[in-house]
Amino acid sequence: MGFVDRMERPAKPRGVSNALALGGLAALLLAAVRFATDRSPATLRPAEMEAGTPLSQIDHDGDLLPDSAEWVLFSDPAKKDSDLDGADDFIEALDATDPNVKDGKRSAKDSFRILLSTIRDNRTAGVRRLYVHLLFRIASGRFKDLKGLTLFLKVGNKQFSGDSLIWRNLESVFTRTDPKQGLLICMNIMVPVNDTLGNFGPITFGGYSWIGSVIHKAANVLIHRGGVFHTISVIPSHTLIMQSTGPDEIANPFWSKNKACVFTLDVQAIGRGGVLCEVKDAACEIATRLRCTSSCRNMKGLTFFLPDGLGLITGG
User: What global pTM score does this model have?
Assistant: First the structure.
């Protein structure tokens, strides 16, 4: 049974506290994190990266962010700290700051963020794989403080459980302890996809993590336009950018390569299904190292739901 087939069965409504309560799923999650490979990505040799290594483990700079995730963040996959400001790219991702701009402000609070990326695996006839990257910071440094996690998918105003993705599709987990930041975790969930997924319209991948005594929320949106998958990224001043989910998504890598697809959102409605957002305007604007796809101009009028508002993506 495929990912799309499983999406067609709505999840039973349930409260966040019930979904996060320690039980069978949480136990599986914690066991997966504890017993997944603990080799640092930085120790993988180039030959290992090219032969048989899961794509989510390819992390040339060893910052816990797979190379595919660095694409959507505009960070340098060959540098652990792209802007050399003392905070590596994984920390910048958790803080929703620009990894290419030096910023002295740094958080050390419990955090949770979701990123989406795609890779075409040339080792398997170019099969496109969607990765859901779950990033955590546990400031206490104690793994036991990660008490639970639940995932969901939202298509239109319908919400589906994504919990099965954790134990069916979890491909890799990497952790490290930072003396100032605490315990850092990157979980990578792989989902085979094809263009038919675009028929569902924008899909919100979201989740709630229970760290310490606080429930943290995060989400991102997968958007299919013109045969290209896109996701939402944030740069300084909370400028929203529609970025392709991977370099292979751009048919012509030289198309507007020094521009970014900057867009503005309008809130159309707020209800039980969350916040309904519409792309009011989208245009390619001059930027450094960012690429704008030819689909940018077609984003106008696009609508999608965010259960708890845009703060799920921007980090507040």
Answer: 0.81
What's CA 94's distance to the chain center, in Å? 11
DSSP-assigned states of every residue in 22-74: SSHHHHHHHHHHHHS----GGG--HHHHHTT--GGG--TT-SSS-HHHHHHHT
| HSE of 83, CA atoms in CB hemisphere, 13 A | 18
Q: What is the Cα–Cα distance from 134 to 115, expressed in whole angstroms? A: 7
User: Which residue ranges make up each domain of the chain?
Assistant: 3-232
Q: What confidence tens digit (pLDDT) does each residue in 14-72 have?
A: 444 444 444 444 455 555 555 444 444 444 344 444 455 667 778 888 888 988 888 88
CA dihedral 248, 50, 62, 153 (to 10 degrees): 50
Which residues, listed in sequence order, are joined to residue 259 by a DSSP beta bridge? 286
CATH number of 3-232: 2.60.40.10
User: Do 282 and 261 meet the contact criterion of CB atoms below 8 Å apart?
Assistant: yes
The dihedral formed by the CA atoms of 2, 186, 171 and 244, expressed in degrees to the nearest 10: 50
- The closest alpha carbon to 151, from 30, 54, 11, 37, belongs to 11
Instruction: Please tell me the least confidently modeled range out of 106-115, 139-148, 160-169, 240-249.
Output: 240-249
